[in-house]
Amino acid sequence: MDIAVNTRFLLPGDHLEGIGRFTFETLKRMVAAHPEHTFHFLFDRAFDSRYLFGPNVVPHVLFPPARHPFLWVAWFEGAVAWWLRRHRPAVFFSPDGYTTLATRVPRVTVMHDLAFEHFPEHMSVLEHKYYQHFAPRFARASEQLIAVSAATKQDIVQSYGVPGATIQVVYNAADAHFRPLPAAVQQATRERFAAGKPYFLFVGALHPRKNLVNLLKAFDEFKQQTNADVKLLVVGRTAWKAGPMFDAYQQMQYRHDVHLTGRVSEEELVQLYAAALATVYVPYFEGFGIPIIEAQSCASPVVTADRSSMPEVAGGAALLVDPFSPAAISGALVRIWQEPELRQELVEKGLQNIQRFSWDKSAEALWEAIISVSNLKNVKP
User: Where would I find the Glycosyltransferase subfamily 4-like N-terminal domain in this sequence (predicted)?
Assistant: First the structure.
């Protein structure tokens, strides 16, 4: 069987985030598990050879590079549709929420979130118009739709009227290298990144939906209430519309206790999770929230938001707070600082919770979806 795959989020370089990580981990496993089938990887630019996971992967570069709404249309409705007509694969699998409407090849599409429906102010007008027009059509045109959480599934049902029975939930997972570390490594990490002091940790790209403005306000309140010698480490790249976060940082009373590290290596990230007093991840909205289970895998207590997918992913093993309330976030930080028994309880529950998530199980579920769609009908592109 020939399977076409949209792999444009497998970008060259050392860092894969969110959708790119989901694509990498699940495809790597599917390719290895099914050598009798041929996977045609469709890239929109020169690719890294490390993404050719086996001899049954055939790479194709289709132009133009699709990183703008006009180019999204040109790539999916033009280049991809043309390739599908020419090669006639059994299935087109797209793990990044986009697909093409200009084909009769059965489509399996993974939707990670509908943040653009709820927070249009976080993107350009042109991007929002693209999503408004195409996203509901992508959802309805896909023979099998995948959501990365039950919360995202319900959002798709409510927003687009897609029957829930046609949407399968396939979770993300934490990579195997996220694990607890010895006390000596934790202390060395604190020495390196936080002058030897305990610290709260945020991990994620710096953009409005991650709610860093309220996190910074909450940390200031925490310091005012406790006068604790505790730092806040903010780990991640600067993404779009991060200006208000930097403004809030400049206005902080305790900004000298906040360290913006930028990106770190995977090894350093594991160390930072494992040595943290707690991981504080309180976005307004998430389709899944991978930092929650990465932190739990490293035996870090977690504070997260009480909405969208985050309670589902945290699995009763985190403190849940109103992300719009700096006072609520600050209150959780105070509890983490003052209640060591609570920290230990969250660690133990977190280590139990992560057993629900596995890239192997996710890859197997995606493969079953691909097989079921490929058998639906005789494809005539």
Answer: 18-176
